[in-house]
């Protein structure tokens, strides 16, 4: 601006992408407004995608919804990546009704969901305590031929914990552990252990808590604050 050269869409998208990585959602929304109002630069799919991602990653689902509305009002159709990002926001907050509505919108527009979209829909049901509905989504994923990744396996474990089926939950934990021993992804190592321990505490299963904690430490996975919440 100091050189009196107005920023173009490419520059704006670089800025928005950086803000999304840093979870600076308010600034991302402000930049989007400047883009439209000050410099008369029409945002594109990538512009809105960055803003939605910034809001979702900051757990500001309502703000992400507003960004999606602006996107639709501008006549830009979200792609599967944008839909999956928005679905992740609903999944993390247990907004299963909104997640279902979003899935219906994708189908109406003939945008094929991917495994991340379905995983987030599953998480929405799990976080809302609707375990049978969550299992129904995982069945659809299996029917579509998608293999179970660590995220889906952890969701399956959480479903079994929620249903009080600790034998099945422990069996799922063994599958996760075996995959890691075989060189599978080792990200978020404590998550499945913590999910089992947390559910066991809520349901008074001290025996399961002790067993999982010993297994966790034997596997060299350090407990964190979520382990003892």
UniProtKB/TrEMBL annotation:
PROP1-like PPR domain boundaries: 25-178
Chain positions of PPR repeats: 8-42, 44-78, 79-113, 114-148, 189-223
Gene3D superfamilies, per database record: Tetratricopeptide repeat domain
Superkingdom per UniProt: Eukaryota
Keywords: Repeat
InterPro entries per UniProt: PPR_rpt (IPR002885), PROP1-like_PPR_dom (IPR033443), TPR-like_helical_dom_sf (IPR011990)
UniProt-recorded name of the protein: PROP1-like PPR domain-containing protein
Source organism of this protein record: Hemiselmis tepida
Lineage: Eukaryota, Cryptophyceae, Cryptomonadales, Hemiselmidaceae, Hemiselmis
């Amino acid at each position: 601006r100091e050189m009196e050269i107005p920023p173009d869409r490419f520059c704006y998208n670089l800025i928005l992408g950086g803000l999304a990585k840093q979870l600076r959602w308010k600034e991302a929304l402000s930049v989007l407004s400047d883009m439209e109002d000050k410099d008369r630069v029409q945002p594109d799919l990538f512009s809105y995608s960055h803003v939605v991602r910034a809001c979702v990653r900051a757990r500001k689902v309502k703000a992400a919804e507003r960004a999606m509305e602006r996107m639709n009002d501008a006549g830009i159709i979200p792609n599967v990546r944008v839909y999956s990002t928005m679905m992740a926001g609903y999944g993390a907050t247990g907004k299963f009704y909104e997640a279902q509505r979003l899935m219906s919108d994708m189908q109406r527009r003939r945008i094929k969901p991917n495994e991340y979209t379905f995983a987030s829909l599953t998480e929405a049901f799990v976080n809302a305590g609707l375990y049978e509905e969550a299992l129904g989504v995982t069945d659809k994923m299996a029917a579509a031929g998608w293999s179970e990744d660590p995220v889906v396996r952890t969701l399956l474990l959480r479903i079994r914990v929620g249903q009080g089926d600790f034998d099945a939950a422990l069996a799922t934990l063994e599958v996760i552990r075996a995959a890691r021993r075989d060189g599978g992804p080792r990200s978020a190592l404590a998550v499945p252990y913590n999910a089992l321990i947390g559910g066991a505490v809520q349901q008074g299963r001290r025996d399961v808590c002790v067993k999982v904690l010993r297994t966790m430490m034997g596997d060299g996975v350090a407990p964190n604050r979520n382990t003892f919440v």
